[in-house]
Design brief:
mainly alpha, Rossmann fold, 5-stranded parallel beta sheet, elongated
């Protein structure tokens, strides 16, 4: 999906919109700019507009001198018709909290709230940019600069262009993480541009997110992955080994999850290929893992305040449980948490524990919202989505049961 959606009225500003689209596509690339005329033939137009608007980073509303008073064949103002596509596009953008930027062309003025339908009243408060005929190139460059800096829309890099610097890449990653946290379906939809590199980009994002989460756990909770008394070099090697092993474990788990999801979605929707399933799953898994790590950081910090060595003893007990032979003998138990009635628990530790619980709850809510990206990606119905989800849960339960049977 494109990151820039152009909303315009043919009888008002088709020529100016074409010039603007050419400038945007030349800078950002064809796949990042979308006009409603580019929808596929036979596609549900309203559904296509909804998906395009809700997944975009910004909606540019091109306003000409006839935009407000444009009328239909019977003389009625088009904006007063609830089914008018321009009105629908703006309403969808405002409802989805997508940034709306009015672009004034051909000497047009910004319409007032009194002249707009009530559902578009907030459009009158949007900050507008003007594209003047006398300084078109300058104004267009200013708009392009705004889109790149404010909405983090990257320029289309040519094969001969130098790669982005480290600070730019980090800023882009941070922007993606924030967007994934606040608008998961929108970000995931924007990452499906149809390019062959889409899946590779999603996998790279997944790898970085897993690494960031592991670093949060390793240093935030001061996990001891080396033997007591080890040298600094030994501790560094142990930490790197822990991070690499954690990355590999998540990759194996993600591959298994993608296999289960692909099978479930192919049953529910024949057009659901494993590449798109893998792309959505990579972003979903990344967001869920970061949320879990932040939650664990808060709760783990509370445990460290209550009992400083509890996490180390718990890690040792978990390792003993995992490596214990299945002979039927009683398995090692997790250590008890002492000091729940002490004053540290009633102070800062209690606050951190509540923050951890709130973060876990927020992560669970986020997962439910982000799960809808699968349905959005395949334009599936609610029935198909429920079928795929049920099949996925059933397959996961079957795999867990098989593992217990074999273990």
């Amino acid at each position: 999906m494109a990151e820039i959606f152009l909303s315009y009225r043919c009888q008002d500003s088709e020529s100016a919109t074409g010039r603007l689209a050419d400038a945007l596509e030349a800078h950002f690339g064809d796949d990042r700019v979308l006009r409603d005329r580019e929808f596929a033939a036979g596609e549900d137009f309203v559904a296509a507009i909804r998906r395009a608007v809700e997944s975009s980073a910004v909606v540019l509303v091109v306003v000409g001198r006839r935009w407000l008073g444009a009328s239909d064949a019977e003389g009625r103002r088009r904006l007063d018709d609830p089914a008018d596509f321009v009105r629908l596009e703006i309403e969808l953008a405002l409802a989805a909290r997508v940034a709306v930027v009015p672009v004034l062309v051909e000497g047009a003025a910004m319409p007032s709230a009194a002249g707009l339908p009530p559902s578009l009243a907030s459009f009158a408060r949007c900050q507008a940019l003007e594209l003047s005929e006398t300084r078109w190139r300058y104004d267009a460059d200013r708009l392009i600069e705004t889109l790149g800096s404010r909405f983090a829309i990257a320029a289309d890099a040519s094969p001969l262009a130098p790669s982005a610097g480290g600070s730019v890449a980090l800023a882009r990653l941070a922007s993606d993480l924030v967007d994934l946290a606040l608008h998961p379906k929108r970000l995931i939809a924007r990452r499906q541009t149809g390019r062959a590199s889409d899946l590779a980009r999603a996998v790279a994002f997944f790898a970085v997110a897993i690494g960031v989460g592991n670093l949060i756990l390793l240093f935030g909770l001061d996990l001891r992955v080396a033997e007591p008394g080890a040298t600094a070099a030994s501790r560094l090697v142990a930490a790197l080994g822990w991070l690499v092993n954690g990355e590999l474990a998540h990759v194996l788990l993600a591959v298994l999850l993608v296999g289960v999801l692909s099978l479930a979605w192919r049953v529910a929707e024949r057009d659901a290929d494993y590449r798109r399933v893998g792309l959505v799953a990579a972003y979903f898994y990344s967001g869920a893992w970061i949320g879990f790590c932040l939650s664990a950081l808060a709760a783990g910090s509370a445990l460290l305040l209550i009992e400083p060595d509890y996490l180390d003893r718990s890690a040792g007990a978990l390792w003993a449980i995992a490596s214990a032979p299945s002979t039927g003998a009683s398995a090692p138990a997790l250590p008890e948490l002492r000091g729940l009635d002490s004053s540290p628990f009633r102070g800062a530790a209690m606050v951190l524990m509540l923050l951890g619980f709130a973060a876990w709850l927020a992560t669970a809510v986020w997962c439910v919202a982000a799960w809808g990206a699968f349905r959005q990606s395949f334009a599936a119905s609610r029935a198909q989505s429920w079928l795929a989800t049920t099949l996925c849960l059933a397959l996961v339960a079957a795999l867990v049961g098989l593992a217990k049977l074999l273990g």
